Amino acid sequence: MIDLDRLIARIEQLGQVGALPGGGCKRLALTPEDAAGRALVTGWFRDLGLDVTTDVIGNTWAIRPGPGDLPPVVMGSHIDTVATGGLYDGTLGVLAGLEVIESAIEAGVETDHPLAVAFFTNEEGARFAPDMMGSGVAAGALPLDAMLASRGIDDATVDEALTAIGARGDAPVGALSPAAYLELHIEQGPVLESEGVQIGVVTGVQGISWTEFTVKGRSAHAGTTPMLMRRDAGHVAAAIAMEARAIATDFGPPQVATVGRMSLSPDLVNVVPERATLTVDLRNTDETRLAGAEARLFAFAEAAARDEGCTLTRRSLARFEPVAFDAKLVDDIATAADRLGYSHRRMPSGAGHDAQMFAPFCPSAMIFVPSRDGISHNIEEYTAPEDLERGARLLADVALARAGCRKGPRA
Amino acid sequence: MIDLDRLIARIEQLGQVGALPGGGCKRLALTPEDAAGRALVTGWFRDLGLDVTTDVIGNTWAIRPGPGDLPPVVMGSHIDTVATGGLYDGTLGVLAGLEVIESAIEAGVETDHPLAVAFFTNEEGARFAPDMMGSGVAAGALPLDAMLASRGIDDATVDEALTAIGARGDAPVGALSPAAYLELHIEQGPVLESEGVQIGVVTGVQGISWTEFTVKGRSAHAGTTPMLMRRDAGHVAAAIAMEARAIATDFGPPQVATVGRMSLSPDLVNVVPERATLTVDLRNTDETRLAGAEARLFAFAEAAARDEGCTLTRRSLARFEPVAFDAKLVDDIATAADRLGYSHRRMPSGAGHDAQMFAPFCPSAMIFVPSRDGISHNIEEYTAPEDLERGARLLADVALARAGCRKGPRA
Question: Is A221 labeled as ligand-binding?
Fold first, then answer.
């Protein structure tokens, strides 16, 4: 089972909603483009005769009615994109979930737990902060009222945007209560492709620490100021950037460290910078290690600023502890991949996903398929058809087993 | 001789032309504010009965008529300012020159060489590139036609701006031919103040090398891309910045190195930078050492980019060889300072000045007085009255001696 052509056709059809001239698409959360995407996908849900529910923040799920009242096994992800998004990030998890259900129906497969497919509001966080908003609210990790009041880059609130596109439902927070949560997603990184591995069995999500450092020194003439009399904010910033790299090297994988932003002021060739700001993004799957990386970085930054006669302030922009997925469910994915003959490796997710919001509340796990060149959040995003098929087949296998396949062929 | 009150009154009066609300002033070259400054200063020249001449690029000088036809001893600098200029940069050299001549006239002092005072067009380079334009043209180091065609930050050419404010004269290039050139200037750095020294005897001007590096790597997700698979342009930029500092440290004074500009692209917290640009400003008084600093920096940058899998391009934004001032004239300044009882030290100029343009063609030298907190190009620029007086008296002493004082009291 799994009709690859149908899955790809839907991915392409949804990709036409908010399509960008050069390829890829833009469906920022709760915009008219997102509304059109929601309508298309919800239409497919209804075409299959599924029970469709939308909650107060626009999360939408479709349940294949089952015989009893057991909670559903939910396959889900999101259909909003970043401003220069591709066709697979999020979309694959939703449409593969739909494909699993449609295939099961066609094959006459029955399950103890109903199968469900869901898309969650504003996973990307590209319009409204924070990201993973809808799944966070659904899982009870984020407060509904504060999320509704979140103001987007266009100054509209989530509340206003929900009303504007008619995406607000009446199901309350907590209405979706999965027996298990499974998310198929593109890797968004280069590891699987570079190692020639077909499937990533995701063990959890890295903890994330984002810090913005601001260094204040003294502007001075680049020609007339002896080196020993300088208080060069830019030098301190460069030193912190080098230390971030050194921490990643010394700690070893999976520790990563990235300086994505840096700016100097007044930003003139011949003026010693008075002020510098930079951001450091640290990630690790182990909370103790992540905290250790932060501690080393912060201590270094303080000392570097002090040595240069500068002052340092730092601000946390984001901090999430690592999330571990359900060990049994992770094992089930690996076992199923073996049975299907797919090469696989265990790996953490370096990016955040809706699955992490459900992990504290129900058995949750993720399946990764390769991203060509590791590219994502980019119109060049691409995953080959055979990888889409392997991912969807594995998702079907694990979801059906978890739901308790009672009748009909196994995937 | 030297009437300090008169000197200060003129500095303050000229500072009112283009005065900024919070202090300081803005007289960008060849703007209406510069025109008003020129009119004020030229009026003072005429009030003293000096012969005033303006050349084809607006350089203006005033000669005290003398008995013979010997070339003049010229005291000069500039009266244009940067956008947030102070009251002393340039202005002091011009108004102190005027004060020397006025005092000499009042004291009945006669000289073999006429005394002259000059201001040169667009020394700052804040509106038109390059800086030291007028003195460069006057000394024959810069081609007139190319300078007239130089387009300013407001898109006007020097030619158009000269016409617009009526600052063009009819004296040809080369009309000013000094017997010697002397320039009193604020230090624009912290050395004299920090060492408690009253006078800087300037031995020359540091050579300057400005390089812009552009590093091209590959953007990648900060969470999903292992460190060893990154091509992080920002990391290379930070490494180059650290090497610039290391070069200054290893070479020792007077080598200085400054990274004044740095920018990352796409400049997002969670994206490995695809592109980074930074500038490095290297200065040394010794050409061989300066070239050595460049060679080490360039080799390091190439290797750092290669190690990270990035490409590197570099572009020279400016390159001037060091200028040595006339050894005899420099000695004369030191001797005169001793005679006047002023503490002094020899030092290079870290900034460019009009004097360096004349250095190849006539004995030239400069005198520095302290800048409070080393601040210049800033409305907070300040030099204390007693420092102004010492500078002007020393200038008078050296200028009169060089001009051949024939009659009347010595300073």
Answer: no
